[in-house]
Amino acid sequence: MKTLIKTLPKAELHLHIEGSLEPDLLFELARRNRIPLKYKSVEELKKAYKFNSLQDFSDIYYQGASVLLHENDFYDLTWAYLEKCAAQNVTHTEIMFDPQTHTERGVQFDAIVNGIYRATQDAEEKWGITSFLIMSFLRHLSEEEAFKTLEQSKMFQNKIKAVGLDSSEKGNPPSKFKNVFKAAVKMGYIPLAHAGEEGDADYIWEALDILKIERIDHGNNALQDPKLIEEIINRDIALTVCPLSNTSLKVVKKLKDHPLKKMMDLGLKVTINSDDPAYFGGQVNKNYEEIQKALNLTKEDIYQLVKNSFNYSLLKDTEKAERVAELAEVYYELEQ
Ligand code: ADE
Ligand code: ZN
Fold it and tell me: Which residue in 124, 144, 169, 266 is a FRET match for 80, CA 20 to 30 A apart?
């Protein structure tokens, strides 16, 4: 199974680049940028990675991101993630970034986008890994602030494919961002959002009907509402599920209780992703391995999940078909 998971070419669709910042690089950047840290060592920092909720995690995550200042920092961060993609046969990535986490601290918008984008271009040249960028609005901030971010992105539209919505969900429903999503879609961005991670099924309805999202990040709480499940299936929208994130943030008690298989059996289209791999104990392949063991997933299940990762990516249909054909070739060769 481990070989199968490792060998199959796959796409990762739910990844926060700030959440891929490993402790070693975090310390290196802190030293380079002379930013004092609360933690004396990598070990001490890792001990703080115990969360009871999304809010708990967010506090540490924003502290970690505070070491990112210059274009080269964003380049190094993204390059480190893409090296891991190459090692795991991730051949396509859709990378989320939170500009407001950085612009609030005085970091230039162009340093963020250019640093991330340049690394993706270099990875495409070196390994053939393709990437899209998803600019996510922080939902604990106001819609007005999201509008400022949208405005700043105008010069960089050729580098950004989609908009997203992340951070603390409860109390910050999708409807709060109705106007900014409408404006973003008008500019040509594809609308995506986190919904139903901690928030109830109502939040997913709002994300679908008000923000008109084309993919749901997490979506676990869709299972509360049979009508919603039917609607998601009818609209042929995928859920980007993140198993190790869900156990780390106590969205799910144990991996054995994870609803992934139930989702698949109901006919929902799901994909496997790492969310914030530096904080939640594993990259995307580890997420596949752990959930496979916990739920006893078959090879066919794994193949289906990987196929979904391309079919529900933001790639063009012709490109999706090519990627799925390549995947099929590898899969059937392994099965010989
Ligand atoms: N930002 C980074 N990771 C997140 C998550 N799991 N949910 C919401 N916002 C996030
Ligand atoms: Zn996320």
Answer: 169
